[in-house]
Amino acid sequence: MLAVRQLEAGYGESVILRNVTLEVQRGEVVCLLGRNGVGKTTLMKSIMGVLKARKGHVTYSGADLTKRAPGERARRGIGYVPQGREIFPQLTVFENLLLGLEATPGKGRIIPESAIMKFPVLPTMYGRNGGDLSGGQQQQLAFARALASEPALLLLDEPCEGIQPSIVDDIRDVIRSIKAEGGTAILLAEQSLEFVKSVGDYFYILEKGSIAWEGGLEALDDEVIRRYLTV
User: Average of pLDDT values for 144-154?
Assistant: First the structure.
């Protein structure tokens, strides 16, 4: 479904990603690991088109999206939950969710029940401004906003960062339910090793902007963790 090939990207004169290659197949949860500052968020932004690739290719469902704008990538079925959530604080919860429909013209103001059922607390907050929600509630809102377009590929950048354990558990349950449904691929960047091991099918580890290791859960042993992930 998603194929990244020899991707290079960065900011200004700085090169952050070098020759990054990875794949995500339909129904899989693929996890992106690495210490702080190795390029996980840069890779997510590059896949979504927020950051332009300098070299390499991003292919999705057989189409080369490397030079396509973020809006077109969204319309083709890629949903994105960025690090830091990036909800609109002055808009209501309902209005924030409606923005998720911008990627699917023709749906009008009908938010799919499949997105709301995964976060049942949100309809009780429709009239509240996004900025009045707790960090965990904002994360749920950002996740549901991405699901509103019913994406076939979901990019999740640090969804557990800075939120309370109960909502981390909720997000874990949502990822597992999406995985069980089998129609959506997920690329998950996350610091919590316990969390990714509980949901992931395949793992890539970034080090200094390049893929240093990849493998399944059984291969993600103590030696790999010590070498690439222990601070």
Answer: 95
CATH architecture of residue range(s) 2-228: 3-Layer(aba) Sandwich (3.40)
Span between the terminal Cα atoms of the chain, in Å: 33
Strands (E), the chain: 2-11, 14-24, 29-33, 55-60, 63-64, 78-81, 153-157, 185-189, 202-207, 210-216
Query: What's the rounded Cα separation, in Å, for the pair 215 and 29?
Result: 13
Give the integer Cα–Cα distance in Å for 129 and 231. Answer: 38
Query: What are the residue ranges spanned by the domains of the chain?
Result: 2-228
% pLDDT > 70, the chain: 98
Query: Is 29 in contact with 186 (CB distance < 8 Å)?
Result: yes
Choose among 188, 103, 89, 83: nearest CA to 145: 103
pLDDT band at 103; cut points 50, 70, 90: confident
Residue among 98, 102, 163, 93 nearest 126 (CA): 93
